[in-house]
Amino acid sequence: MHGEQRGWVRADAQGRYRFESIRPEEHPGREDPQHVHMHVIEPGRRTYYIENTVFTDDPLLTAERRERESAGRGGHGMATPRREDEGVWVVRRDIVLGAGTPGYPALEE
Length: 109
Prior knowledge:
The protein is globular. It has one helix at 63-69; strands at residues 35-41, 47-55, 78-79, 82-83, 89-90. It is 6% helix and 20% strand. Strand 2, helix 1 (63-69) and strand 3 (78-79) form a beta-alpha-beta unit. By secondary structure, it is mainly beta. It has a domain at 35-90. The protein has a 3-stranded mixed β-sheet, with no helix packed on it. The protein starts with 34 loop residues before the first strand and ends in a 19-residue tail after the last strand.
């Protein structure tokens, strides 16, 4: 089911954010790697999407997909997962505001 897991997060004054979720699985019958969709809402700007966060250890993340993800909206979306205590996956995704976004910083009408 699309969009079953949703959430919101607000960055702090230093731009840090954190959310907790399950590690997604690939979509049945498709060859897309595991991914998390993300949108950015900046004060005084329109909402825009950034590249999906994908995981470097996913066997479905092909060389072609890695290249495409490395220069996408919001900076590259590849994250290297690591396990912490109790089997929790942790990833870091740095977002470059406006990177690769048409019309940024000017608002499109």
